Amino acid sequence: MFFKTIVFLIVYFSADFSNGQRENKFFREDYTYIDEGKGFYKIHQHQQTWFAAKVVCAREGASLFFPENDAEAMAVVAFWERTAPSRERMLLGMSELLVTGDFVTIDGRPVTEVYNNWKPGEPNHLGGDEHCVNWHKGGVLNDCPCDYRDDFICKKSIHTLEWNYLCNMSNMDYTYNRDAGKCYKVHTTPVTWTEAKAICESELTQLAVINNKADAEYLASLIESTPTPRTADNYMRGIYHMGFHNTYGAGWFTVKDLSLTASPDMWWGNNIPKGDYQCGSMFFNGQLNNIDCATTSFFICEHEAQSNELL
């Protein structure tokens, strides 16, 4: 009976806390809540193509913004003018990629059902390749080429917000390790070391660092329990990018610029490498290794939990 009660409490509180930050209107520290849109917003001032902007937003757990109505549009324009007054245009989550002349939102709704305030004379399909949409200052829409690079806005709707209570973050894909006080996510899309580092940072985390054998054993078990998707990509199987490097040529440092504390017997061959390969990795069994930074492979991100445990 006692055991059943404990299980019930764990399930109950886990469900309750899964959306525990909705009431506090918090998603991520780099997003701002705007009540008119019932969501969280972030202006990206590093220009991307329309497709790349969608990827950036998705990595942050959000989506490429489009206005649902006039009230949201004007509230976001005001946010834009307060926070990025020098920026003239923003890419929006609207396109006519499926049917020319039929502009829809990224969730498939006709633009006419949401925000349809076009700049005079637009859309005009100039050059025959303007299949995406950007937003000019003042709130008017304009069609533009999808490979046109511009600033953009990401949005996270509050009704989609979930909370990973043990990891104290919105990303539900991270697994809590009580012994380390950290959370980890195994990424199974192969990328280079530099790209892996950037993806972890977009999730407000970092490439994982192994400090001792307990860390190595835990990550090896996490890898074993993570399904590996079938992919035609050419990548280094069985190796995972990790958060250390020797790009300075002065020894192995973590992504936080601290000296790596792993002992020599944790490295493959029981020796700390000094060769040409300057990026850090880990074999599936937990042994550390150096790797060419341009090699594509899976990777692991880590997050300092700073949570209140349920048990």
Any key phrases for this structure?
16 strands, eight-stranded mixed β-sheet, Mannose-Binding Protein A, Chain A, disordered N terminus, 20% helix, alpha+beta, 2 domains, 311 residues
Number of strands: 16
Give the biggest beta sheet.
8 strands, mixed
- Distance from N terminus to C terminus (CA atoms, Å) equals 18 Å
Instruction: Please bin the fraction of helical residues.
Output: 10-25%
Named at the architecture level, the CATH assignment of the largest domain is Roll
**Secondary-structure element order, as H and E?**
HEEHEHEEEEEEEHEHEEEEE
Give the overall shape. elongated
Radius of gyration: 23 Å
Strand content: 25-35%
Low-confidence stretches: 1-17
What's the CATH H-level homologous superfamily of the largest domain?
Mannose-Binding Protein A, subunit A
Give the structural class: alpha+beta
